[in-house]
Design goal:
Layout: E1 5-11, H1 14-23, E2 27-34, E3 37-43, E4 46-52, H2 53-56, E5 73-77, H3 81-93, E6 97-98, E7 104-105, E8 109-115, E9 121-127
Length: about 140
């Protein structure tokens, strides 16, 4: 099996979360989806498993983080600046929150951060390593 990253996220409303991730460009994988979880494919190396809070409890009894807190941010590299803006707009249009942090544009890199319908943080980013300033 190739090296793959599986990200599992607890969600309050599986249908709403599945629709949100589809709007961002993730594809559902029905083979690994059911009443308590939905596998969402970003690409062959990255998949997000959205699970109900009840299913999440079968994985761990650790407490859910308080609303508004942040333990991590996941970043998705996109093809261009316009794709970064489009993903941010799609997040806002489908129940998420756009621009939870100030947008950054350094010329060679652009990022816009958003939260999904459950407050999980993501960054949409584009970078052109060839255009990076030389290290001093």
């Amino acid at each position: 099996m190739p090296k793959t990253l599986f990200i599992t996220l607890p969600v309050a409303d599986l249908g709403r979360s599945t629709a949100f991730y589809q709007a961002l460009g993730f594809r559902p994988n029905p083979q690994f989806s059911g009443a308590d979880g939905a596998a969402m494919v970003w690409n062959e190396a990255v998949q997000v498993m959205l699970v109900t809070r009840a299913k999440w409890r079968t994985f761990t009894q650790r407490p859910f983080p308080p609303a508004g807190s942040c333990g991590l941010m996941l970043s998705l590299a996109l093809d261009n600046r316009a794709a970064v803006d489009a993903m941010n707009a799609a997040a806002a249009a489908h129940g998420g929150q756009a621009d939870v942090n100030p947008m950054e544009d350094h010329g060679f890199m652009r990022t816009r951060d958003f939260a999904d319908t459950d407050g999980h943080l993501w960054a949409a980013l584009w970078m052109d390593p060839a255009a990076m300033p030389a290290a001093s």
